[in-house]
Amino acid sequence: MSSTASALQRAKRLALGLLLLVTAVFVATHFLPQTLLVRCLQSMAEAAMVGALADWFAVSALFRHIPIPWVQRHTAIIPRNKDRIGENLAVFVRDKFLDAPSLVALLRRHDAAQSLADWLGAPGNSQMLGRQLARLAQAGLEMVQDRQVERLLTQTLRSVLAQVDLSRSLATVLGALTQGGRHQAVLDDVLRRIGGVLQQADTHHFIAEAIVQWLKREHPLKEKMLPTDWLGDKGAELVAQALESLLDDIAHNPQHRMREAFDAAVQRLIVRLQNDPDYAARAEQVRHYLLHDEKLAAYLRDLWGGMRQRLEADLDNQKSHIARKLGGLGRWLGLSLAQDAALRRSMNERLERWAQALAPEVSEFIARHIRETVQRWDARELSALVEQHIGKDLQFIRINGTLVGGAIGLLLFAFSHLPELLRSLPR
C-alpha cells in the first residue's frame, strides 16, 4: 500500500474513532445520574455526533452512492459528474493556462532566449543536449521500417513529379537564379577555378603531351625534324598564358563579349524551356524515367540502406560524430544568444508571435485530450483516485466537524443553562 493510501486509512480510522467515542459518551450519559455535568457531556456528545454524521455524509456523498430516500440522487457526485468535471477542467486549462496572453506573459516574465543561453552555456548541457537528440534520432530510426521509407520516397516522388512541369519549372528556377546577374558570380567562380587549374604543373605537362601527340599524328615528318619536347613545353606555356590572359580579361571586364554571350545563352535556354516542344518532350521522358525506372528505384533503395547503416553505426557509438555536432551546434547557439542582445530580442519576439499564433490550436488540442481522457476513465476508478489524493484532507473535515459540533453543543448548553451554572458556582 502506498504512503498516500496509508495516510488516508489512518485519517479515516481517526475520524471513525472520534465518532465512536462521542457516541459512547452520549450512550453512557443516559445511564448516569442526570447531574449538571452529565447533562453537559450529553449535550456536547450529541452535537458532536450530529456534526460527525453530517460531515461523514457530505464527504461520502462525493465518492459513493448513499441509499437514503430523497437525497440519494445527490450522492456519488464525482462519479455521476465525471464527464462534466472533465469538460470543466478542459475549459479551465484552455482558457486560464494556455490562452495566448498567459503564454506571452510567461515568455516575457522568464526571458526565454536568455534562459536558453544560460542553460546552453552551463558546462555539460550542450553535450547532454547533443546526446539526447542523438538518442531521439536513434529511437526514430528504429521505428522507421525500410519498406515504409521506400514507399514514402516513391509516393512522394511520384506525387511531386505528377504535378510539376519539369521544363517550365526549370525555366523558372533559372530565371530566379539569373535575376540581377546572379549567374555572373557563378561564371566568376568557374573562371577562378580554371585559372587555378592552368597554373598547375600537371596541366602544363598535359598540354605539352597533347601538342607532341598532335605533331606526331598530323605532321610526322616535321615531328622528326623539330625538337618536339621543346615545342611541347613552349606551346604549353604559350597556351596557358593565352588562356590566363583571356580569363583575366573576362574576370575584370563586366561588359566582356564572353559575358554577354553567356547571358544570351542562358536566356535562350530559359525561353526554349518555356516554349520549345522538344524540351517539353525531353522533360516528359525524364519524368517517365524517374517514375518507372527500376534501376533508379534500386539505386534509391541502396542509397537509403547505406545511409541507414552509417547513421545507426554512428548513433550507437559512444563518441557519436552526430552527437558531437549537435552539441557543438548547441554551444554555438548559446554563445550567440549570450553575446547578441538583438538576437535574443528577435528570438523572444518570434516566440511570442508563435505563442499567439499557435495558442488557440494547441490549447484546443490539449483541452480535447483532457476531455476525452476523462470521458474514457471508469467512474469508480476516477472516484477512488480523487479520494486517494484528497481524501485525507476531507477526513479532517469529519474530524473538525466532530470537534466543532461538540464545542457548539457545549456553548448551547452553557447559554441555555446559564442561571443553573451560575448557581452551581462556589460562592
Describe this structure in words.
The chain is mainly alpha-helical and 427 residues long. It is 86% helix and 0% strand. The chain has 20 helices and no strands. Helix 1 (3-29) runs antiparallel to helix 2 (36-63) and helix 7 (125-143) packs across helix 17. The chain is elongated, with a radius of gyration of 44 Å. It starts with a helix and ends with a helix. The mean pLDDT is 77.
List the keywords.
elongated, mainly alpha, 427 residues
Mean of all residue-level pLDDT scores = 77
Number of helices: 20
**Outline:** elongated
The helix-strand sequence is HHHHHHHHHHHHHHHHHHHH
- Provide the β-strand percentage band: under 5%
Low-confidence stretches: none
Query: What structural class do helix, strand and pairing data support?
Result: mainly alpha
Largest sheet: none
Number of strands: 0
Euclidean distance between termini CA atoms: 59 Å
Radius of gyration (Å): 44 Å
Give the % helix: over 70%
Short description:
The chain is mainly α and 427 residues long.
Strand and helix layout:
Layout: H1 3-29, H2 36-63, H3 77-80, H4 82-96, H5 100-110, H6 112-121, H7 125-143, H8 146-163, H9 166-178, H10 182-198, H11 201-218, H12 220-225, H13 228-252, H14 257-275, H15 277-292, H16 294-315, H17 321-339, H18 341-376, H19 379-416, H20 418-424
